[in-house]
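hey so i finally got around to running both of the ones u sent me last week. sorry it took forever, my laptop kept dying halfway thru and i had to restart like 3 times lol. anyway pasting them below in the order u listed, first the sequence line then the structure token line for each. didnt double check formatting much so if smth looks off just lmk and ill redo it

first one:
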Amino acid sequence: MTNPSKLWKSASGWSHYLWRERPGTLDLSGQTIQSSETGSPDSPPDESTLAEQRQKSAEKRKRRAAVLEVLVFGLFIAVIMAASYGERSPMAFYMTQNVERQILGGGDVAFSEISDIPTCWTWITTGLMPALHVGTWYNGRVRPGARLLEDMVSYPLGHVQLRQMRLKPGKHCEPPKQMLNVTSRCIVEYSNGMADNENYTLLWAPQPNTTVNATDGSICDHINAQIPPGLYDCVGNPWMHTSVSLTDDMPYFGKHGSYIGGGYITSIRTANDTNFLQQNGWLDENTRALFIELILYNPHVNFFSVVSLAVEFTNLGAAYKSSEIVTVRLIQHDVILLLALRGVLALFLLYFTLREGKSLLSRPLEYLMEFWSWIELLVITIGFSTIVIYFYTQNIIDQVAEQRQNGNSAFHLYKSAVSWFQLSTYLQGFLICCATLKFIRLLRFNSHVYALSMTIRKSIKPLFYFMFTVAIVLLAFILVMVLVLGTNSDGYKNITSSLQSLLLMMLGNYDFEALSGGHRILGPLVFFLYQVVMQFVLLSIFMVILFDVYENGDWTTNPYDLGFNAFLKETATEAVEKIKGTFSVKSKRKKLEMERRFSTDMIPKINRGFSELNVV
């Protein structure tokens, strides 16, 4: 028989163990049960603790705002790059090279060998026109009249357009009196003020002062009787001046003048047109610039190539050539994606506009005095300009499609679209440059970026005074080079070209043979002195100034430092603690549940024990 006293003690002990409240234990809901021994919950924290917590919270918000700003601006740059590079392809370079080889390299006289008006006509007749009308295929099949390049994949859109700029007829200058016995002819340089804009007839004869209505073709009938069919009509002909606006044609800046759009324009279709223009003196001594323009299209890669060739006939008697081939993709396959990117870009720019406008209104003078504020305004202005030009170019492309469907010539629209596309490309490049500089500034909380920016800022003043000295020394060498080599070397013919050549010489790009050929002694001597002064003296002083500023600067205290290392460490620690706390709560809940289950199993046993005691 069990001892009643032992059984009572055992039952009392288990009851005390199961039902006592332990400090810090959790109930089934996960809440802490306060022990009766510990008393009331903790009292509120004091003011110092609250201030410390507020400071930590403010620092966290500041760090998160900086991280968010970097991420947003990084996404903005990514959108700009996607919108800019999405319209371009590296294959455009190869098509440009292919077109240049086929157009400029053929004929009895190459384009680079043009020296006067007769050789220019020779290249057009034997080089340009045959290159655009290849009738024999690779398999020997002949297709007469086919308008196709030699590569069999590039198609001319429209006909070749010739445009010339002329001087006004008449005598514009006189030679010195001492030389009148040699010649009385004198030709001036071209300028827009001296450009001819009158209308003429064949052989540049003045047009009769006769008014002709739209239905009367008496004058035109007489002219057209002598001209190959289709060369021109009464509305526009090679001897009538055509004016265009700046929005339709960009100015051309040549070696011997700047030329606005328009002029005397004609289109040549066959060799007969070329021969007729040559025989009737369409190019003569008053011609100052001839522009040869055509548009090619390769449907296999969806590229348009706008070929612009210029020949300047100067009063020196020489012809100066230049060529420009621009290959672009005017019709995009991913139009929806590009429109979406432009829409996202517009939203970013609108957000930046509102933010900068708020800063400008809150502190106008301080805002306008900051350098980076102007960078922000520049980014916003250029960004909106690129969007406007993009949609304007798309509108021109839509007009091109409409004109071609109606069977009309759309040459000027193609050229205008490509010109605006190029302008948009230049603005996008400048926009990416400014945005990247702004992005570097956002990383100023980094110690190395801060040291770089402060070194540049503090070295501006000493470098300004130093660059003033460099400018004087450089001007001395420029004047020497112009005087010594100006008549023999193209790189030193004037002050501008001499400055460019000397700056390239500092980078190691120079033609020593041209220097020695200009003057056998002075050329190499000036070159040697320039290299010693610039490379060994001035460049060394420049580096010493930067090193001195960097060495004497205190870069240990960064006012923009946000303590990102500590922030990342603290964030990681908090995340680990939260994970540990989650597992700890689950473990405590599981332990408490086991205790409750254990207690539930023991209650019947205790009841039986009490029953046995009552029986005894």
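and the second one:
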Amino acid sequence: MLEVLRPGLQTTVQDAGRRALALGVPGGGAADPVALRLANALVGNPAGAAGLEVTLTGPTLRFHADALIALCGAPFRAALEGQPFPLGWAVPVPAGATLEVGTAARGLRAVLALRGGLNVPEVLGSRATDLRAGFGGLEGRPLQRGDRLGWSELPRVTPRRAFLSPTLHTPTGPVLTLRVLSTPEATPALLAALTERPFGVSAQADRMGVRLAGEAPAEHDPTRVSLPNVPGAVQLPPDGRPILLLPDAGTHGGYPTPLVVAAVDRPALGQLRPGDQVRFQPVTLKAAHAALRARERTLRGVEAALRQWYKTAARRPGSLSARDAEGRARGAAGTRTDPARGGGGAAAVVQGGMTFPLIDLNADLGEGSPHEAAVMPFVTSANIACGGHAGDASTMRESLRLATRHGVAAGAHPGFPDREGFGRRELHFALEEVTAFVREQLEALKAVAAREGVRLSHVKPHGMLYTMAAKDPALASAIARAAADSGIRLYFGLAGGASVMLREAEALGLTPVGEAFADRGYAPDGSLWPRGQAGALLPHAGAVAQGVRLAREGLVTAVSGEPVRVRARTLCLHGDGPEAAELARDLRRGLEAAGVRVAAPGR
């Protein structure tokens, strides 16, 4: 049984929706159906099982029985018994525990799935809540304090320590491009007016639709008959302010509908929040179908792999309950959770029915080191100096070509404009100056990359700029703002309890990628031990061992001797040392021998 201590802004029971359009009843269901599918897959449920849809501000829930849960969708901050609760993981919850779901830095909705699915009465073949009609879910309304919900029983299993790649989640704002198909009502002039400028998301937004700020020329035809509506339709009322239809929209309408959002991007409509910006990008029907097929292949692959794992796990004797799993987890005495990235262990990927630990190896490039070419075969991401501390158009071009030749993801490595000090001196600039010089470096590399036909994958600050940003939220935000302006979504930042880089990047709509260091010592709080002090740099064998442990367990041993949780998705290798190539080779071999898959984020 689940008890609602605090309901949140609008928390409702939702599933995959109902098929009753012939009765004039909207399909409804989760506004972000991808979040519903992923959350259900993580706990071993059918794709359409009922869960809780959380909107803007989440609930506080007490579990009166052991449960297995997952939260997917917008990056809501959440805590289980006061400890950070991670997005995109299957987490066992013991009876008596309390889950608090807070707010999201971006996006609007998330889905909380419980293994077995919420057990509320079906109405017209669905458990989804229709707020306008007042049926489905729990009495056709949002949750209230004191409500109690049950769920169906499934065999208890201990989940694999796996989480989903951030690229699987539905994109969120503050800026979104939606692929659209034009209808016969889209004249050339109207199509241009709708697609050549961005529109803001107004405060008039609910599960029926989202009204956009900004106008387009609208012709009012009082003789126009009402026609069927579909979620994703872009209606144009007489005032010229477009309306995007969501799952609870009426089944018919009389406004012109010049555009329809392609099915592949409709889940993003459920993540639009007031203040976001939307741009419409016309595509062909063939391109829309191809994009949808590609997404479905990926989602169904993940669903099939997890379904097979749960099917096998349920047949194993002696599967652990949530309370047993909690007890074993607490047995790892003294481990700390990285609050910047949530709880749990190392990253993992589901592939071919198996779950593998997953890590990226990154190295710096274009800084004049003679070891770069020897390091490149062993890494999966390269951070290319782009004119601040090192690099020019020629070195950028050569670095991009070297990365491309080895199939390595190429990213930008901006630093202080300090060639004499190689970007390692502590300098102080006004925040707007930081944003300006980082943006200038990113644009310089983007221009060279465009000529080489390379798409940049990530941004990682360099040297002292990185070190200072890990402790200074304003500086971290200034750097991340330049990355957001450049359109590069992945942002590498220091993982660890003392770092603010990932939080500030996430607040600006970037996808944060926690970074750890195989060859650096760590302080008890998860920060890097200062250079120049004993234990700051690890020897070759120690660096390999630490890198493998970080990838498999999400742990390091601090200089004090205690285990510290540092959950990272990428490991940095310093490519300028005399043993750089040997360390890269041995670490790559050690990771693969330990069953770790080495791949760049999103690949």
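quick thing i noticed on the 2nd:
The longest strand covers residues 354-365.
anyway thats it, ttyl
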